[in-house]
TrEMBL record:
Start and stop residues of the Solcar repeats: 18-137, 145-230, 245-329
Organism of provenance: Tenebrio molitor
GO biological process, one term: pyrimidine nucleotide import into mitochondrion
Membrane topology: Multi-pass membrane protein
Lineage of the species this protein comes from: Eukaryota, Metazoa, Ecdysozoa, Arthropoda, Hexapoda
Protein name: Mitochondrial carrier protein Rim2
GO cellular component terms, semicolon-separated: mitochondrial inner membrane
């Protein structure tokens, strides 16, 4: 370690505790605020990704089939399905927002917010804490701070976070896909309904798509760590002073890395949403992607990407910059230098 004056066990233990505390507390605050602010865009994105991606206001006969059975996307007639899933008829972000407000009311923009708030804090906390701890582990086995260390750490963190929180996101998606204006289904009612029909395993439908999404976190953190390392080298070489510009640069690094990662790995999001829909049309990850590509083309597997970028990139950039800022403040107070490479 480059901090030659911090070699004692107490100092190392204190530094580890700080990193762990940052990994748990900071993501909870940043993630919760971001979830509330971006919830309407989250609902729009989920609707765009679904098999009823146009979610046009369908004729009454299609909404209420004979016998009074509950309406799902399966009750849409074939001609209507081809219309609402046509790429040319996918609504824009603004059109989606207006459509939801018109036919479901303003509060519909916050469907699934409850599970989102419940899940975002533990998800982010588990992810960052796991990433931080596994990074220490892999640094002991592989060349310290090498790209492979970041890949392995991000993979472990993504796997653990996805496995533990998938039931929460499953319920959130089901609530967001509810197009019924008169529906007052709560998260608890949704949980009971899923459990009564599919049991515990029902909450893990689409988990394979979530695991495939680990590739996004890998690309994200590999690029972010690479940019961060270059910024650290630049400031070490040309300037010893660190100010607000450093945090702005880290914010931009987070935005750039997230943009690239989202574009590369986005199809798994569409597959995951389709798998979480009611019905048996989509059964597995690859079957879902194949079917979507066959019926809707390349644009079908990238539905909602624009909304995803608009929603996620600013949120991620702010979160990453805040993370770096708080770590910097806390570590400098203890006489350490956060910006120095750990492996020096």
């Amino acid at each position: 370690m480059c901090q030659s004056d911090a070699t004692g066990p107490d100092s190392q233990h204190l530094t580890l505790n700080i990193r762990t505390a940052n990994g748990k507390c900071l993501p909870r605050v940043a993630g919760t605020v971001g979830a509330i602010v971006t919830c309407p865009l989250e609902v729009v994105k989920t609707r765009q990704q679904s098999s009823n991606s146009g979610f046009h206001h369908l004729p009454q006969i299609a909404q209420e089939p004979p016998g009074g059975s509950q309406t799902t996307c399966r009750t849409v007639y074939p001609a209507q399905r081809r219309y609402v899933t046509s790429s040319s008829n996918t609504l824009s972000i603004v059109q989606c927002l207006k459509h939801i407000i018109k036919y479901e009311g303003p509060m519909a923009l916050f469907k699934g917010l409850g599970p989102n708030l419940v899940g975002v804090a533990p998800s982010r906390a588990v992810y960052f804490a796991t990433y931080s701890q596994t990074k220490l582990f892999w640094n002991g086995l592989l060349p310290p701070d090498s790209p492979m260390v970041h890949v392995c750490s991000a993979s472990c963190a993504g796997f653990v976070a996805s496995t533990l929180t998938n039931p929460i996101w499953f319920v959130k998606t089901r609530l967001q896909l509810d197009l019924n204006k008169n529906s007052n289904m709560t998260a608890f009612e949704c949980v009971r309904r899923i459990y009564s029909r599919s049991g515990i395993l029902g909450f893990y439908k689409g988990i394979t798509a979530s695991y495939m999404g680990i590739s996004e976190t890998i690309v994200h953190f590999v690029i972010y760590e690479a940019i961060k390392a270059e910024l650290v080298n630049h400031h070490t070489k040309y300037s010893m002073e660190k100010g607000t510009r450093d945090f702005f640069e880290f914010m931009m690094a987070g935005a750039v890395s997230k943009t690239v990662a989202s574009c590369i790995a986005y199809p798994h999001e569409v597959a995951r949403t389709r798998l979480r829909e009611e019905g048996n049309r989509y059964t597995s990850f690859w079957q879902t992607l194949t079917l979507v590509f066959k019926e809707e083309g390349v644009r079908g597997v990238y539905r909602g990407l624009t909304t995803q970028l608009v929603r996620q990139i600013p949120n991620t950039a702010i979160m990453m910059a805040t993370y770096e800022a708080v770590v910097y403040v806390l570590t400098t107070r203890l006489g350490t230098d956060f910006y120095d490479k750990e492996a020096n």
